[in-house]
Specification:
255 residues, TIM Barrel, eight-stranded parallel barrel, 10 helices, 8 strands, disordered C terminus
Length: 255
């Protein structure tokens, strides 16, 4: 099974595990991206979110053609989801029912009107019909508030929760009042299927806080791509993960 594949069962909230480290792509063209990404994969990166919101399908296809196919299963695609089957990508990321392509119509069905409807019929589920459970693409979603988080814990494989801290890459992108940390910690103590990932202003100094809140991992963008030597920044994050104590996701009142 590829390293990006996830267990399709409810996570045990009493277990402790190393924090996962994901990387988000720069939004625009960066001549360093392919060579740096090869270095990151070689250094141990298992999941790369390819987010180019203004790019055309042709631009993304060209980018994917330039990446060695051995790395395609580690790519989670944010737009032009139909490319996932052409390149055998590892996953698809969705924004929300009203704005994303996750509700590509199957059997001429109307667009979903709720989170639950979206979870039943996004593109990744259409693609999964052609795969076994073990090889089906990971299904990811963006989360920006607690109600959406709670409603999505059992309907997606991965949830990217943001913004947690002031962003390095987006000016004015600050922590959201809809994600109070005390309530977020309680929500993350619930049994769930989804891997929940912290996003927004993550660097080595903030990894302990992510772990304390109960996240399963952290996604970084500015900490990598604003570094003069991205692979060194990645190694520093890996070192911080190894040095940071592993916290259980048991509720704080548990014995």
């Amino acid at each position: 099974m590829d390293s990006l594949s996830v267990e399709r069962s409810t996570l045990d909230v009493g277990c402790s595990a190393p924090l996962a480290l994901l990387v988000i792509s720069p939004e625009t063209e960066d001549p360093r991206e392919h060579p740096v990404l090869t270095e990151l994969f070689t250094a141990g990166l298992t999941s790369y979110h390819l987010r180019k919101p203004t790019w055309t399908r042709a631009q993304l296809a060209e980018w994917l053609h330039a990446l060695p196919s051995v790395f395609h299963p580690r790519i989670v695609l944010h737009t032009h989801h139909d490319l996932a089957t052409e390149f055998t990508l590892g996953g698809l990321h969705h924004r929300d029912p009203s704005r994303s392509t996750c509700h590509v119509l199957r059997d001429n069905a109307p667009p979903p009107s709720s989170i639950q409807d979206e979870a039943k019929n996004p593109v990744c589920h259409v693609i999964r019909d052609k795969h076994s459970v073990e090889t089906a693409p990971l299904c990811s979603r963006a989360i920006h508030d607690l109600p959406t988080l709670r409603a999505s814990l059992d309907t997606y494989d991965r949830l990217l929760v943001s913004p947690l801290f002031p962003s390095f890459s987006k000016t004015g992108y600050a922590p959201d009042s809809r994600l109070p940390h005390a309530e977020l910690k309680s929500a993350l103590a619930l049994p769930r299927r989804a891997e929940v990932i912290a996003l927004g202003g993550i660097d080595a100094s903030r990894l302990p806080a992510c772990r304390e809140l109960g996240f399963d991992g952290a996604a970084v963008l500015g900490a990598i791509w604003q570094s003069p030597v991205p692979v060194n920044a990645f190694h520093a994050l890996q070192d911080a993960l190894r040095l940071s104590p592993i916290a259980s996701r048991l509720p704080s009142h548990a014995a």
